[in-house]
Specification:
The structure is a single chain. The chain has a 5-stranded antiparallel sheet with strand order 6-10-9-8-7, with no helix packed on it. The protein has a 5-stranded antiparallel sheet with strand order 15-19-18-17-16, with no helix packed on it. The chain has a 4-stranded antiparallel sheet with strand order 1-26-25-24. It is mostly beta strands and about 425 residues long. A hairpin with a 4-residue loop joins strand 25 and strand 26. The chain has 4 helices and 26 strands.
């Protein structure tokens, strides 16, 4: 492929990732790109995407040097070459992996989103396909998604984004663009809740409807919670299979705190549950971290600001949408936070469009654990390392695993070391 074709492909894929997979409102959305998302002048969108593509191309030119490992390295690559693909084994390839999780035995899994696959990663970094099928490709060479239940070797998915293993060892997968929660039971894949048709409906698993669910978590009692992204709500699937809306206003985005039935979210894209039952939400579209406890929703971290407060390149303010930023401290700012994980009372955040891993400490302060707020691919000490659109985080023991979505790799770092030097 020529450099010109590769550059064009990078711009298209980056734009698609931002507006379709990451679901980042108030960021880079060309006029009319997605119904219901704010529009900005197409020329401005193209300039922003062009700059991101140029920076990514510069990083890729020195990919080999950036991925070197040193004796002081604390961020490392566990699996993936950095080149998108679907190769199993070691070295393996991924195509914008998103959520990452594990079984009770410590087997890692990742939702390989743009490949429409669920992959596993063993302790040696060897990758294999668990389920999903690559059937046909679009004009850019990316696999098309479909919906089909059946054997694990013949089932189809459509942009899976996250997963969890329940207390019975069954794997539940958020099949985002199929608007469903799928389950692997034995050697078969079933639709556990939802339907290919988007909507919002509570009720039995068969009756329930979702709209682009993105993230999933399970509480100690075995109930399942889902960030139902384009419905702007948090859903619960109890052990009998009944689906209810536990927080948010269906179909209405906003940032209101308060009682769960009156609170509002804006495209929630991450969820984690503590042992004491608090439900943490990455309120992606508001660039906030929220928490559900004692029947109420409150903002835990992040500062709500709006695009109407600023101008872009001399233009008039671009509507009045939530605006992302990058600040540590008590008045922190995030930019499209996605995956969440909990470690010793610290909430770990994949701050996707800040290309960084952040942590909200028990005292409410936010710190940056790793990354520089600029996209790249560098394995080094935490603050010298670089990520590209990290979307998933998962804690196993004292190690944090990261789905570094834009780099098509799975990364890791040791949390005790990182937290000691992060402040």
């Amino acid at each position: 492929m020529s450099n010109r074709g590769s550059s064009k492909r990078s711009r298209v894929v980056l734009a698609a990732l931002i507006v379709s997979v990451i679901l980042a409102p108030g960021t880079i959305v060309a006029a009319g790109a997605l119904e219901g998302l704010p529009s900005i002048p197409t020329a401005s969108a193209e300039r922003i995407v062009e700059r991101i593509a140029e920076r990514t191309a510069e990083q890729n030119l020195v990919h080999g040097a950036l991925n070197r490992r040193t004796s002081t390295e604390q961020v490392m690559t566990v699996a993936g070459t950095g080149i998108h693909g679907a190769a199993d084994g070691s070295p393996a390839q991924f195509n914008m992996p998103s959520g990452i999780f594990s079984s009770a035995e410590g087997m890692l899994y990742t939702a390989d989103t743009m490949n429409n696959l669920l992959r596993s990663i063993d302790l040696g970094g060897r990758v294999r396909r668990v389920t999903g099928e690559i059937h046909v490709h679009d004009e850019l060479g990316f696999p098309h998604g479909f919906h089909r239940d059946g054997g694990i070797n013949t089932a189809f998915f459509n942009r899976p984004t996250d997963g969890v293993v329940d207390m019975h060892g069954r794997i539940l997968i958020v099949d985002s663009e199929n608007n469903a929660i799928r389950i692997i039971y034995g050697q078969n894949v079933y639709t556990f809740a939802g339907s290919v048709s988007a909507g919002h409906a509570d009720g039995s698993a068969d009756e329930a409807r979702f709209n682009r669910p993105t993230a999933i978590a399970i509480c100690p009692q075995g109930d399942i919670y889902v960030a139902d992204t384009l419905n702007h709500v948090i859903r619960k699937i109890d052990r009998s299979g009944e689906v209810t809306t536990i927080a948010g206003t269906p179909g209405a985005s906003g940032s209101r705190d308060g009682e769960t039935g009156n609170a509002q979210f804006n495209r929630p894209g991450g969820i984690a549950i503590s042992q004491d039952g608090r439900i943490y939400i990455a309120d992606t579209g508001n660039h906030l971290i929220r928490v559900i406890e004692d029947g109420s929703v409150r903002t835990l971290a992040g500062t709500l600001r709006f695009t109407g407060d600023v101008t872009w390149e001399g233009q008039a303010p671009l509507g009045n949408e939530p605006l992302g930023g990058f600040e540590d401290g008590a008045e922190a700012m995030f930019n499209t936070p996605m995956g969440l994980a909990i470690w010793q009372g610290n909430l770990i955040v994949a701050d996707s469009l800040n290309h960084s891993i952040r942590a909200v400490l028990p005292n409410g302060e936010t710190i940056t654990l790793a990354g520089t707020a600029y996209p790249g691919y560098i394995n080094a000490s935490p603050r010298a390392s670089a990520f590209h659109l990290p979307r998933g985080v998962y804690v196993l023991g004292d190690r944090l695993y990261i789905a570094d979505t834009g780099n098509n790799v799975i990364r890791a770092m040791e949390l005790p070391q990182i937290l000691e030097g992060a402040g």
